[in-house]
Amino acid sequence: MKNRILLYTQAELEAKTDIKFTFEEIKKGTKVVKIVFYVTSNAKLGPEGVNDTEFIDHEDTIQLLARFEVAKKVANSLIKTYGEEQIRSNIKYVHEKKRNAEVTNMAAYIVKAIEENYAYPKIF
Q1: Distances from the Cα of 106 to the Cα of 21, 55, 66, 98, 122, angstroms
Q2: Cβ–Cβ contacts within 10 Å for residue 50, how many?
Q3: Among 67, 99, 114, 118, which is least packed by CB within 10 angstroms?
Q4: 49-105 per-position pLDDT tens digit
């Protein structure tokens, strides 16, 4: 159970969410009778003490796109075509909506969000 469930879940949770956990096995002899979980914050990106909205609002646009692994050439093209306001609003949108979702290529998702303006969809 430990290897199949707990360690797998621990790695997945830490990789995909803003929390993580450690655990302690309480044993009687060789048998585990209790498990104590310790849940903590998982601050993996951005400067400490700054929430992501503040970071997105104040970070240089090229650096912000680089944070999401968007190539510099593509970033420059996006800035020229769509402007910084549309880029920042769509990065905020993607960050809020997809933070815990499984997105295999975040750079491509961010670019598509900016190009199609996911933050402000057209209403027909």
Answers
A1: 25, 18, 11, 10, 23
A2: 13
A3: 99
A4: 345 777 788 888 988 888 888 899 999 999 999 999 999 999 988 887 776 677 778
Biggest distance spanned by C-alpha atoms of the chain: 67
Structure tokens at 50: 């700054």
Which pair of tokens denotes residue 4? Answer: 């199949």
The C-alpha atoms of residue 68 and residue 63 are separated, in whole angstroms, by 9
CA distance linking residue 105 with residue 54, whole number of Å: 24
Give the C-alpha separation, 21 to 11, whole Å: 9
Torsions phi, psi for 37 (to 5 deg): -105, 140
User: What token pair was written down for 106?
Assistant: 């975040």
Distance CA 90, CA 119 (A): 5
> Under 8 Å CB-to-CB from 38, ≥6 apart: which residues?
21, 22, 23, 24
- Scanning the chain, the segments in alpha helix (DSSP H) are 7-16, 52-58, 61-67, 72-98, 106-116
What is the C-alpha to C-alpha distance for residues 18 and 52, in angstroms, rounded to an integer? 12
